[in-house]
From TrEMBL:
Residues the record marks as active site: 108, 295
Intrachain disulfide bonds: 121-127
The organism of origin for this protein: Gossypium raimondii (Peruvian cotton)
Lineage: Eukaryota, Viridiplantae, Streptophyta, Embryophyta, Tracheophyta
Residue ranges constituting the Peptidase A1 domain according to the UniProt record: 90-511
Name of the featured protein: Peptidase A1 domain-containing protein
SMART domains (alphabetical): SapB
Amino acid sequence: MGMSMNVVVLSLFVSSLLLSVVTASDDGLVRIGLKKKKFDPNNRLASRLESEDRQALIASMQEKYGLHNNLGDHEDTDIVALKNYMDAQYYGEIGVGTPPQKFTVIFDTGSSNLWVPSSKCYFSVACYFHSKYKASESKTYKKNGKPASIQYGTGAISGFFSYDNVQVGNLVVEDQEFIETTKEPGLIFLAAKFDGILGLGFKEISVGKAVPVWYNMLKQGLIKEPVFSFWLNRNVGEEVGGEIVFGGVDPDHYKGKHTYVPVTQKGYWQFDMGDVLIGDKPTGFCAGGCAAIADSGTSLLAGPTTVVTMINHAIGATGVVSQECKAVVQQYGQTIIDLLLAETQPQKICSQIGLCTFDGAHGVSMGIESVVEEGNGKSSGVQFNAMCPACEMAVVWMQNQLKQNQTLDVILNYVNQLCDRMPSPMGESAVECGSLSSMPTVSFTIGDKVFDLSPEEYILKVGEGPQAQCISGFTALDVPPPRGPLWILGDVFMGRYHTVFDFGKERVGFAEAA
């Protein structure tokens, strides 16, 4: 690590915190308006103190994605494990009970449950800093009592299910099943400005098989159309933070027409996307397709380390040096290039040179726990295991350069530079604030359209003047097939592009935000 900027972690992406304002509407739409609050430095402190748990968080994510390939396998949801709600920006207010007890929640398209702190949360400090639901004060409360737990990688929130009315805007959803949390461990929930989460994902990933709020809105005839949409105002100088519209779309929120893509796997709002471009040049990594999720519960853009490293190199972001990556280039660089020139299938190269095994579709780590080197007794199994993904990244990078007709020396030098730009796992990458004008556009291919992000849109600035820090909005997340490669398109993307979640037609739409 060794850099002063490394204390800047995911929570720095919280450039503003928001509270909701409900506005009346004559067009049959229900609008939840958002207001901004200043960034709270306490979030940075909490995230610093929790940063030691990030390796465990990554391991938890990779294990879950690798082992649980069917959404219905168990009650926990895969997407919840990758969430660190410290970096979420957009909040709204709901009411639970009769009369309504107010709670600030994240409207999260990456999960499906509603939870708020319970008055029976006695032993978690976080509960004493947030609103708590008091069942005894609600005329419409109904007991359930079934235990509930949601795993977040660095700890689980737990509690029990209850039923009560839930007010969203001017709508009242009756007999909604939700979780009263009695345990909220860690500093994440202590420093957070939200009380709970309102999930807007599909029922397939709902913990405890609870019917999501959105489903009950439709079932009880409260919504005009089975559609909701997000407009997120990224202009930090304006008071209005954005708006969530239930029942349709507001034409004032976007320009032109939406590009729609079908939901490919119900649970998350997941769809197929094409290649990622840096400065109008294709990276090639997602040329054969990648999965993507539109997620309002995170402000970042998370994607494969291979591509995030290429982006970091292009924008001058400082990451973590990977010795395994450089070792692959030094020992096998020439061989990889020779095999690529001989038109060997790229996905088989790392298995041919002995760093991976080939499972018929892609290379996988050989899983050797310990290989004792002669003479010194050192175990090199961990390093050898790490060289498989490093090799596969090097293959993609070298293939990209060969397509540009670069020389051997140029290719090897370029790949070595990329090794220096590899990001910390789920961590930050710092950039010079004065260099934005020289940074390239980064683009995503969705449907038949290319969606551009400018440096001003994907770089997140924290603070003002000489103390300001600029952070890349891209973070690394490696999800193996068949679930991956996977991109999480959070608020950085949804801020530029108005997003429509069409439940009726099972599709997601993007158009330039107004």
